[in-house]
Amino acid sequence: MATVKVLVPYNFSVHDFKAFDFIVNMLAGRRDAAVSIFNAYPPAPLIDLTSNPELSKMKGGLLLLSEELKRKREGLEIAKQYLTTRGFSADQIDIVFKKREKTIAEEIIDAVIKGRYNIVVLTPTPGKVSRLFAKSVHDKILSTVKDVTVCIPT
User: Fold this and answer.
1) In this structure, are residues 34 and 142 in contact, taking their beta carbons and an 8 Å threshold?
2) Is 33 within the bounds of a domain?
3) Does residue 113 form part of some domain?
4) Phi/psi at 35 (5° precision)
5) CA distances, 74 to each of 10, 24, 54 (Å)
6) Which of 33, 63, 98, 113 has its CA 20 to 30 A from that of 9?
7) Looking at beta carbons, which pairs linking 41-48 to residues 24 or more positions away fall under 8 Å?
8) What is the DSSP letter of 14?
9) Cβ density class 1-33: b for 16+ within 10 Å, e for less
10) pTM for this one?
11) DSSP structural state of residue 100
12) To which H or E segment does residue 62 belong?
């Protein structure tokens, strides 16, 4: 059983790999480490396209959303492969790809508590607008989780 359980929220940005590099530098080669790559995606709207002929025009948009989710799932697999080529075995890495039902901060907090993670590695956010949004997510996580190390590599 892993003694070091790490959760890495992944948002498909180039900055996410700073979090992965941090994990590689700290934990690669350790057999007692387990890493979960986490993404909570916004759910696609449930629309009955047969109820109104006008709604059938939305079918293309819904197909695009479905394709986007498929690409994100593939992106998570690429992130897993990135870690496996840098010192982790495939059985040490888990992917959590779930429909978001709450705010992203609440989804991360729930995952930390339910998964009993002891480290969370958040992505640094360089731009002013990104920092403003991420600050609220980071602050919410930092103020809520207990007995968990939260890292934000720069």
Assistant:
1) no
2) yes
3) yes
4) -120, 130
5) 13, 21, 33
6) 63
7) 41/69, 41/72, 41/97, 41/98, 41/99, 41/100, 42/100, 43/99, 43/100, 43/101, 44/69
8) T
9) eeebbbbbbbbeeeebebbbebbbeebeeeeeb
10) 0.84
11) -
12) helix 59-84
pLDDT band at 42 (very low <50, low <70, confident <90, very high): confident
CB 112 within 8 A of CB 106: no
In a domain, 83, yes or no: yes
Q: Reduced to 3 states, what is the DSSP secondary structure of residue 4? A: strand
Rg, Å, the chain Cα set: 17
Q: What's the CATH number where 119 sits?
A: 3.40.50.620
Does the pLDDT of residue 56 top 80, yes or no?
no
* Per-residue pLDDT tens over the stretch 108-152: 999 999 999 999 999 877 655 555 555 688 889 989 999 999 998
Strand, coil or helix: what is 11?
A: coil
Is residue 60 assigned to a domain?
Answer: no
What pLDDT band is residue 84 in, cutting at 50, 70 and 90?
A: very high
Range of the structural domain that residue 19 is part of: 4-43+76-151
